[in-house]
Amino acid sequence: MTKTISSHTALITGFYEELNNSGEEFPGHPSIFQLWLKASGETADKTWIITNKGKLGVLENTSDPQWTGKFLPSANCGVYDLGLEGGHSYDGYRDDGETWEVVQRIFAQDHPRLAIINYKAPDTFGKENPWEFYLQGIRETDGYVNKLWLCIQEDSLYRNRTALYITSDHGRHLRGVQTGFLSHGDSCRGCQHVNLLALGPDFAAGKVVEDRYELIDIPVTIAGMMGIQISGSRGRFMECLFRGE
Question: Based on the structure, what is the number of domains in the chain?
Answer without folding.
Answer: 1
